[in-house]
Amino acid sequence: MIDALLSRIDALNNPTVVGLDPTLEMIPSYLREEKFAQYGKTPEAVAEMFLAFNRAILAAVQGIVPAVKPQIAFYERYGLAGLSAYEKTAALAKEMGFVVIGDIKRGDIGSTAAAYAAHIGGTEIAGERFDLWHEDFVTVNPYLGIDGIQPFIDACNKENKGIFVLVKTSNPSSSQLQDILVDSKPVYLHVAALVDEWGRGAMGASGYSRVCAVVGAPHRAEGARVRAALPHTFFLVPGYGAQGGTAEDIRGFFDKDGRGCIVNSSRGIIAAYKKNEKYGERGFADAARDAALAMKKDIMG
Predict the structure, then answer these.
(1) CATH architecture assigned to 2-300
(2) Which one, 100, 139, 198, 200, has least CB within 10 Å?
């Protein structure tokens, strides 16, 4: 799948991904009122809002961005109805030709890690295999070491999927742990070295590994150091736009050929209509499309 993602980025000349992280406050009032009238003030109503909202966003950015990244927490807060909206969103995105990055940030060991890895490895029931989540990649937490990562690597290699390992995250307090010096080197570079080691047995034909890294846009110098340490590792780059990261900040995140990254924006795209009254609530999808095009231009020049 890493090869397919690179191919899709090249085809669209656009290394960006739209985060599908809806909130109730983000949903246009007419859509809220419609679903509340149908389903009452219930989790089912919110799930239907999210699905309708996401469907319109996907249609608006289809053919512009190669991938989408739904963050599962925004859905599971609404229980089973929310999880159903997540699954349906991922399935629809796959049908529409998007690469789907499930932002689930799992981290555990043994049989629990193997169960989590079913997000990309699939689930077997009496000899029948089911791909229940429709994800091509997922995000994972490396804090537990290889015990928490190996089941995901096995799933990647078996099913041609991918993982993004948290290396240097975009949040300001990441420095509390990730910048601690160990043997004169920050922890995030030690994690980067592990990502390199873990990915050697999971290489794609493109020269990039299925074991990828999360590196936050606001950390310009740190990102460049991680790139120098990981020439064959693909990066997912959160933190662009709303979190303060700029196109200039991430120049050093790309490889020598200008490849090797996909840059995320979530509310900067899907809530763009709130920043410009010319769109109005019913123009939220048009605003998302224009914001996606503007992001592409900003990053690609």
Answers:
(1) Alpha-Beta Barrel (3.20)
(2) 200
